[in-house]
């Protein structure tokens, strides 16, 4: 018999709803719970996770569904459940606290607080008996030795109150980077490369798209073939491994092994958005058809499984179905044969299946170890024959998979993650000229503006027709970046104006004039025990590095020197650290590559500028901005002032560092001007 619903039943978060029938008297984070803790003078348990987190589910089954453990929690504590994806601000504060305790972070994250929200103990996953014993011990100490806990909390608060800017001495030394500086960063990064299997040299392996984005830029700046080789090795191995869903498209969150073979099966929107961008850029640099295949198949998955009728994108797919990790994605030998009939043996070889199971008993994870050309040659097929057979087989397998119990869908829509996917669609459109990618991008951008705007600002979350929670810096940064990119393929100034408006709002409500970086939270939002800044890049680039890139790009497009100066000052403040620890600041390193050679300002005037713009995406040329109008005088942008059509043909104006070249009537001539400067 199910337990009576607790207060989480009214949540928008699928993760909180998963806990709505626990016997634990859960509260969502908010005034009611915090006031109750103060009024009743009880310590607080803050338990943080997310819907696609495997060990979060395990701890729920073992502890939070256990009546006896729930009794202990309810009797001695006020219990708060937090979805880290909805409330990254709360997660950030208590993750920092756990780190200050000398513990490794991760999820589930369980922090124990005094009634005034100050943390004194924490950890990640606890087995049931260990959790019960710990809580009883803490309850006893809270009653009998309160002063000791107060002392611990005071120490951790001192640590939390020191900003990263103070901690790491981020003082401006100027953003004058050289090509040699980029090479030095590459050398430091390369010490940790897995030169045989791609990626970084340890398991588990996360995709970390921003690292390879930097390597592409190092290759472009220094003609560093070793950088490009590692990008290709990594992208090929990821595309061939179980990390990538060979049958249905889309990347899972990470590989548990060094071979990219055995994934943690959850699929996150933020990974896939960035990886669509990365594979699209890598295609520009290499023209490898594998990268095109990956982008198209991943966007098909996005459209099929992750897109609402309104054009928003869901957050994630769970790793588990029917209580088993990966069950939805794995195949038995007999099931595979039954679906594919006469083509089964060929596909067995193509996807490296075995009778006993290549992962666990009777469980096969499809993966590849040969290119299509190599496999076709080995099996005496033409490339076209093989690719037709694979496509037909995948359609049959996909149809069969749809009959299985699906993994849980995290159906909340987050503005920042939608921004990352929107940017991916724009980059894919620029690289492959597929109009359906642009249609999806525009529909998503219109959805964000219509449903997720909060006056001049943004909401973080949207679900069931309702937007909630004030957006964080990561949301403003990612959406602004996407609108910047969307303008540069459509030349519709609506998107540029949206980017400017969001940037102005971000400066007004997030910028710290004293430390010259942006806070993670809005100054008008709920105040937590600490107001943090996110400096370091991770699986998602840090929000300050994204904002610095936005300010630089937007400042260049709109001729706003204040923006570019802010970006350069921010980059200058992290220069010393990015030179020493580039693996933690790789998105900052990407911005540094734009300081090494002048940024090309490409201005186009004519009635076919959208088509002509593809010429500038046909090769990898990251250090540029594109501005365009159909006729002279139709835009107020300074870069378009006095820029008319010459010789009755589309006209291209190229400028660097406020110095202009003579106008030309051919995109190729404009590209040659850019190459000459570099």
From TrEMBL:
Q: Which SUPFAM superfamilies match?
A: Six-hairpin glycosidases (SSF48208), Thioredoxin-like (SSF52833)
Domain Spermatogenesis-associated protein 20-like TRX per the UniProt entry, residue ranges: 6-160
Pfam families from the entry?
Thioredox_DsbH (PF03190)
Q: In its UniProt record, which GO terms are filed under biological process?
A: carbohydrate metabolic process
Q: Which domain of life is it from?
A: Bacteria
Record protein name field: Thioredoxin
Organism field: Roseivirga ehrenbergii (strain DSM 102268 / JCM 13514 / KCTC 12282 / NCIMB 14502 / KMM 6017)
């Amino acid at each position: 018999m199910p337990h009576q619903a607790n207060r989480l039943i009214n949540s928008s978060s699928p993760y909180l709803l998963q806990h709505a029938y626990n016997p634990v008297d859960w509260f969502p984070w908010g005034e009611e719970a915090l006031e109750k803790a103060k009024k009743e003078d009880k310590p607080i348990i803050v338990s943080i996770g997310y819907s696609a987190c495997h060990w979060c589910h395990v701890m729920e089954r073992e502890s939070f569904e256990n009546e006896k453990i729930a009794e202990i929690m309810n009797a001695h504590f006020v219990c708060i459940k937090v979805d880290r994806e909805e409330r990254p601000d709360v997660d950030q504060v208590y993750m920092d606290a756990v780190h200050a305790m000398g513990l490794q972070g991760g999820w589930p994250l369980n922090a124990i607080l005094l009634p005034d929200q100050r943390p004194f103990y924490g950890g990640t996953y606890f087995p049931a008996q260990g959790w019960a014993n710990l809580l009883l011990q803490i309850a006893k100490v809270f009653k009998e030795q309160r002063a000791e806990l107060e002392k611990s909390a005071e120490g951790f608060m001192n640590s939390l109150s020191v900003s990263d800017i103070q901690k790491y001495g981020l003082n401006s030394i100027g953003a004058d980077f050289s090509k040699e500086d980029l090479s030095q960063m590459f050398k430091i990064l390369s010490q940790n490369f897995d030169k045989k299997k791609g990626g970084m040299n340890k398991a588990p392996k996360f995709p970390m798209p921003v690292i390879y984005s930097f390597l592409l830029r190092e290759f472009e700046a220094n003609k560093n073939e070793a950088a490009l080789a590692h990008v290709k090795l990594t992208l090929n191995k990821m595309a061939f491994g179980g990390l990538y869903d060979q049958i249905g498209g889309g990347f899972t969150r990470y590989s548990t092994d060094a071979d990219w073979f055995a994934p943690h099966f959850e699929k996150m929107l933020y990974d896939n958005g960035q990886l669509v961008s990365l594979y699209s850029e890598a295609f520009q640099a290499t023209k490898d058809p594998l990268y095109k295949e990956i982008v198209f198949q991943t966007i098909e998955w996005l459209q099929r499984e992750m897109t609402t009728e309104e054009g928003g994108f869901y957050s994630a797919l769970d790793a588990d179905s029917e209580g088993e990790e990966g069950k939805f994605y794995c195949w038995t030998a007999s099931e595979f044969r039954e679906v594919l009939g006469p083509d089964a043996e060929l596909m067995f070889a193509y996807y490296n299946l075995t009778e006993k199971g290549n992962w666990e008993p009777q469980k096969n994870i499809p993966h590849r170890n040969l290119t299509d050309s190599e496999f076709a040659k080995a099996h005496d097929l033409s490339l076209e024959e093989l690719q037709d057979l694979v496509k037909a087989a995948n359609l049959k397998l996909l149809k069969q998979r749809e009959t299985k119990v699906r993994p849980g869908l995290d159906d909340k829509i987050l503005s920042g993650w939608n921004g990352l996917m929107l940017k991916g669609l724009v980059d894919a459109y620029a690289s492959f000229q597929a109009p359906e990618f642009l249609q999806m991008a525009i529909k998503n951008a219109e959805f964000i503006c219509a449903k997720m705007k909060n006056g001049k600002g943004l909401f973080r979350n949207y679900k069931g027709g309702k937007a909630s929670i004030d957006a964080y810096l990561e949301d403003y940064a990612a959406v602004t970046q996407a609108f910047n990119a969307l303008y540069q393929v459509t030349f519709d100034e609506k998107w540029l104006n949206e980017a400017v408006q969001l940037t102005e709002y971000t400066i007004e409500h997030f910028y710290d004039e004293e430390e010259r970086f942006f806070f993670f939270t809005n100054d008008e939002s709920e105040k937590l025990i600490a107001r943090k800044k996110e400096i370091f890049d991770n699986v998602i680039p840090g929000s300050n590095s994204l904002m610095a890139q936005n300010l630089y790009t937007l400042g260049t497009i709109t001729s706003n020197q204040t923006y570019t100066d802010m970006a350069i000052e921010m980059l200058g403040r992290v220069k010393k650290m990015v030179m020493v620890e580039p693996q933690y600041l790789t998105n900052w390193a990407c911005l540094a590559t734009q300081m090494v050679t002048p940024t090309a300002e490409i201005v186009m005037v004519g009635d076919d500028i959208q088509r002509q713009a593809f010429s500038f995406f046909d090769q990898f040329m990251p250090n540029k901005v594109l501005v365009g109008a159909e006729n002279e005088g139709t835009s107020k942008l300074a870069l378009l002032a006095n820029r008319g059509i010459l010789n009755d043909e589309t006209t291209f104006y190229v400028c660097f560092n406020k110095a202009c070249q003579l106008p030309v009537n051919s995109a190729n001539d404009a590209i040659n001007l850019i190459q000459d400067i570099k």
